[in-house]
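Onboarding guide, step 5: your first structure request.
Type a short instruction followed by the sequence, for example:

Predict the 3D structure of this protein.
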Amino acid sequence: MSSKNIKTISNPKLKLEVLTQDDIQKIHNATLHLIEKVGVRFPSKRALELWKDFGADVDFTKKIVRVKPQVIEDALKMAPPAYKLAARDPQQDLQLDGNHVHLGTDGCGVEVIDILSGEKRTSCLQDVRDIARVADATEEVAFHWVAVSAQDAAVEARGLHEVKAVWDNSTKHVQTESIYNVEEAKAAIEMAALIAGGRDKLRERPVLSLMQCTAPPLGHDGGSLDAALLAAEVGIPTGFMTMAACATTGPTTMAGNMTVGNAEVIAATAMLQLAYPGAPVFYAAAMTASDLKTGAYTGGGPEDFLFGAATNALADFYNIPLSMGAFATGAKEPNWQAGIEGSLSSFMASVVMSDMLLGCGFLHGSRIWSYAEMMMDCEIFSIVHKMMQGIEVNDETLAMESIANVGPGGHFLGQKHTRKHMRELFMPQFMDRRPYSEWETKKDDARDWALAKARRILKEHQPDPLDEKVSKEMDRIIKSVEK
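The system replies with structure tokens like these:
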């Protein structure tokens, strides 16, 4: 079996503190006050009845739940602080332990810049397959989100078609944000169990994880809640993502926006722990600031970068892993804006050691997939990966013998020390370091090279195939869900 490398950040030398412990405690206290006095909307009969059983104040008409702080805090203490995301190939299993940052694609976009024609068009199932295949061959990508919507697939089973398309084309872990009703959740669990080798093995090797979006402010989607409960029951890691936005679905102030989003996430997370103590859960967030001119989701900006670092402080406070949105630039094409937003968002989320980092490959605030953007985002992650290693100082790296050999006025190109360590220096794939005269003649740039790499991967890379019997059984399960 060939070795399959995944590039992740671990044992960081850089540190950052955005919130003090006092700040975190204030946000936590304010969050508990909101949950107890204002309430959170849970439009699911099962969720409402569950909360009632645990002593919450439940308004079944308005579907609003108010919970005492101690219930929330005690429930969160039952969540496991670390666990593994399994892959179809065990070599690519991922540890969520606070000491690794794993990069994933983003989802769920609705348009694609076609890899051949360059034209923007509606996304389809073949795009899900192609993106998964390119990601499978890219070491910076540790796991998959379903990147784009398969809009040519039956809507009632679309999420299942998407998950299978990824498993057909990659051996890495799959995390989907597109399973949000009971029927699809049951089928997805069956499909995951096929890969894991049975339901009993699925709990040990969760090859699938679910992410559900909240409905800010202070709300949830009923189908998503029911799907999350089913997943938690069988040990599939599950997280709730808030996308509360300053000035629209959250207060204008960043602390207020974080408090609203935090209430959504920890209330639902506590619910899963009350139902299934010890179920693997994660905190998920992609908070932003609304554009004051249009009210639109920005997908970038200083607020996003600060949220990226601050949210991890909250996840660490609750001692659960974090899935953090990054990279999903508001730029319309791979350009300077995309580079700035991708670099700062990924750095801020990485320097605080967010377990899962999302967003590579998207433009226009997670709406449009771009293969060129994906490749360049991965290069940004590689730069952050190198930066996070810091500077190692020891007898070997001080290079005193080599310096003495060269002496004043010489060069180090012929030194054994240089040959030994030269591959430790960062070598970009897409940053332009050519002589000006060569650039002036060719006038090509990173976008051209990135797109060429993606095209080459799509043409040449053959992922390890999914077992034929498993694939056919998955097709049967999906067909049973389609109307």
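Each response can be followed by summary notes, for example: DSSP finds 18 helices and 20 strands in the chain.
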